[in-house]
């Protein structure tokens, strides 16, 4: 993979954070040239603000991890 910035937006209530983080970091390591930036959702910010911040920071790929609400919020912002 070419150099890429990957944003991971996750809901810590809905996922196993250590497991997801380990899987994403391992995939990024295998791909090479990947910078990861992590954004945690909160009850007040369900993913839209995090997605906008990810784009403003140059993310070339955005991953959403959580429930359907997290995925919907991220998709709406993108």
UniProtKB/TrEMBL annotation:
GO molecular function list: kinase activity
Domain DAGKc: 1-78
SUPFAM superfamilies: NAD kinase/diacylglycerol kinase-like
Pfam name, any one: DAGK_cat
InterPro entries: ATP-NAD_kinase_N, Diacylglycerol_kinase_cat_dom, NAD/diacylglycerol_kinase_sf
Name of the protein in its database record: DAGKc domain-containing protein
Organism: Leifsonia aquatica ATCC 14665
């Amino acid at each position: 993979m070419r150099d890429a910035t990957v944003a991971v937006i996750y809901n810590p209530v809905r996922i196993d954070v250590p497991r997801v983080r380990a899987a994403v970091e391992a995939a990024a390591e295998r791909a090479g040239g990947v910078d990861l930036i992590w954004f945690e959702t909160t009850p007040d910010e369900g993913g839209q603000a995090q997605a906008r911040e990810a784009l403003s920071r140059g993310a070339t790929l955005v991953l959403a991890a959580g429930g359907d609400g997290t995925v919907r919020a991220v998709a709406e912002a993108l």
